[in-house]
Amino acid sequence: MTKSTIKAVFFDFMGTCLDWHSSVVQALPSAIPESEASSLALEWRRQYFLENSSRVSQRLNPEDIDITLARSLEVVLGRFPAHSPHFDDQTKLHLIQAWHSQKAWPEVSDAIQSLRTRLGLEVFVHANGTTRLQLDLTRSSGLEFDLLFSSQLLGAYKPNQEAYVKALELVKLPAEEVVLVAAHAYDLRGAKACGLRTVYVHRWTDDLDEDMEEVKTEFDAFLENMVDLALVIEAL
């Protein structure tokens, strides 16, 4: 059988390519101690994923990520009652906007550039969220992609099979010629079930409830960062 050739790479965005944690922590009220601000941010992120998972299980359509984040924040603030007085409506709005301005992890830009110039691959964002969010994040991060696929645009949340199948249809490539790069095991499991190749990138900000020793055995590759991403994908 002829070995398939990789033609394109789908990237999850927040967490995988972008350091969301720094943006959110910096936007939190200065009265909150740094260590507690980090814990609050991590809990907010975890609650956001729980909200998405609930919508997936109920087979609900994707909603505006700003709405999901706002609802998640209210839940999380209930777990940090001592800090609730610091969160008026204006502060909450400021925090939601902080998710729209994130910097890339240091090695990501070079990794994407290497995929494009050295391997000649097409690169796409394939992430839950809205198109507006992704446009804002490409601007703030300076990262460049051939196209941005959001759950809003695709009409389905990852890890629903529809989210991967629809994106593959749009780029007109079979699953075996596309790699998904993500810092989220649930996402890669969904992609793997659809036949995509899978590369896990470990980020300390995400997948806090996953067993990393188990995750290391699940996918085509496991990386601590994207420094060697081009080499790994070339080997696939």
Low-confidence stretches: none
By CATH, the architecture of the largest domain is named 3-Layer(aba) Sandwich
Measured distance between first and last alpha carbons: 15 Å
pLDDT averaged residue by residue: 96
CATH topology of the largest domain: Rossmann fold
How many runs of DSSP E, i.e. beta strands? 8
Largest sheet: 6 strands, parallel
Structurally, how many domains make up the residues? Answer: 2
Structural class: alpha/beta
Structural features, described:
The chain contains 11 helices and 8 strands. It is an alpha/beta fold. It folds into 2 domains: 145 residues, Rossmann fold; 79 residues, Orthogonal Bundle (DNA polymerase, domain 1). The protein has a 6-stranded parallel β-sheet with strand order 5-4-1-6-7-8, with helices on both faces. Strand 7, helix 10 and strand 8 form a beta-alpha-beta unit. Helix 2 crosses helix 3 and helix 3 crosses helix 4. InterPro entries: 2-HAD, HAD-like_sf, HAD-SF_hydro_IA, HAD_sf, PGP-like_dom2, S-2-haloacid_dehalogenase. Keywords: Hydrolase.
